[in-house]
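Retro notes, item 3 of 5
We never archived the inputs for the magnesium ion complex last cycle. Fixing that now. Sequence and ligand:
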Amino acid sequence: MTVPVHLLLFDIDGTLIEPRGAGRVALRSAMLDVYGQTGPIDDHDFRGKTDPWIVRDLLRCCGWADEEIDARLNEVWEPYLRHLDDALEAAATRPTPCRGVPALLDRLSADGRYELALLTGNVEEGATRKLRAAGISRFDVGAFGSDSEHRADLPPIAVARAARRTGLSFRVEEAIVVGDTPEDVLCARANHARVLAVATGGFDADDLRSHEPDGVLEDLADSDSVMEALEDVIAGTQEVR
Ligand SMILES: [Mg+2]
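Structure as it came back at the time:
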């Protein structure tokens, strides 16, 4: 009998890494280069949003119409990645892995019951560079903000890519999103996927619980607790921790 393999879809910022402002610093510089304005970028809540969604929000704040934004949105990514490289190098904004994440990823990668993929609002190349800067190298497939501005579009994309890469048949309804914001929970729910929320990105466990994820953890620091929580989610335990 073959053991079923569960696909875990990991968010990046606030879940795998503490981003420490690198994305914001880079986007501010890139928007100034390309549009000459940034909108209220310093106060804007980036959490859970895709990169193109953030840029659209900020340009709308500057009075841009959606047609103008659509026409010029993609101009920002090349300078963004260039500035991101600088921000990822700088000591003040270099991301670090969230506590326990490297050991957890080692353990999950060695466990035949799990496959790992990314589900993140970062544009793909930004995701790759942030993870590399934080020393995380366990991911080679995922869905990204460069695939869609709408986070809810991303789970089926990640599932299809993971299936193609592994030759396994994954279903989005059986995938488990692991993320730190209500948006992660909502994008899982929109796809009838399961979701384990983790309170390491600024939303506390009660905030996250109010969106009814299948499980909530304070952090990913203790891999035994994470493995247990994943098993509960898989078992369909509706009890919210
Ligand atoms: Mg996040």
